[in-house]
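User: Some background: our group keeps a shared notebook of sequences we're curious about, and every so often someone picks one and asks for a predicted structure to add to the entry. Today it's my turn. The entry only has the sequence so far, pasted here. Could you supply the structure so I can complete it?
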Amino acid sequence: MKFKKINILIIGLVSLSIFKSYAVNESIDGIVSEAFNNGQFNGSILVAKDNSVIYRKAFGYANGSKTEKLTLQHRFNIGSISKEFPAVALDILLKDHDLLIEQPISDFIKNLPAWSDSIQLKHLLNYSSGLPDFPWSVGVTNDDAIQSLKKIAKLQYSPGQAYNYSYYNNFLLALVIEKVSKKSFDEYLYETVFSPVKMTHTENSLNIPQNSLPTAKAFDSAGKEDDYPVAISGPSVYTTVDDLFKWVLSIENNQLIDLITLKSMAKPFSLETNSHGFTLQQSAFGSLKYRGEEVAAIFHDGSHINFHSVLYFDKVNKKVVLIMSNNKSDSKIFSISNEIILLLNNEVDGKS
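Assistant: Of course. Here's the predicted structure to add to the notebook entry:
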């Protein structure tokens, strides 16, 4: 009789857990479906708890003419979230070649002005190099960027003294990786990061990839598709929500980078936080929330013209929210992510 009561209790707890999971899934679907129906979201989403996917779905269209339905196999450009990959690749490079993160970039890239002696690799990761904003223009090349760098007579401030979110940092980091590895930046990322993590639908490309894998095209409110060709080295990743989830799991499992190194590579210039506890300034891993000295959560958003993505990873409570949109001009992606995060956090706190 005692065993029957225990069995009934276990069945009841399992049933309650299934019911709660179903309720959360339905709530997430309600949030995203409402945004889609109101013309405020076009894209893909994945939500996970305890390292397992609980919700994944694609909404809308893969092109501006709205003739191709979006699927979970379509890749999106994830903008600044791409910067996480070269940070890990750099760590691998440093270890393989017995180099230090405190080394100046002049050790690797020659013929830059004297200020290159004072910029260390670590300054590129937390945007404290002192370099100005990147000279973006249609068709910009590596040569253009190098020539612009050579014209900089003086840094905006001494490296390590202040913060400026400039793509120059990412451009120079890519050049360092190419110089040391003797491989193209795209090739090195594939070999050291994408392939080991089995991100089979992921590619680094500043322009729309030309292979046969389905790739979403970004478009504005009028349906006009983005067209901004460039030809420089740097992080600009096209991927799917499924592949990006593999990346999050690799961080969770310390597959490519351990916790001690992550703490060092991901540390922003300033630890000042907003009302949600995330750092106001970013590093290569976006904004971080700390528990003591350890990274407790990552919030990283990235955009590239009309592409816009969000990565939220609560390491402590094992919650993940990944959202990708190819229609930023009409998207309410932050509202969607905030609502889902609030829903998951309320569940964690036992309020649902």
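Suggested note for the entry: The radius of gyration is 22 Å. Residues 69 and 229 are 25 Å apart (CA to CA).
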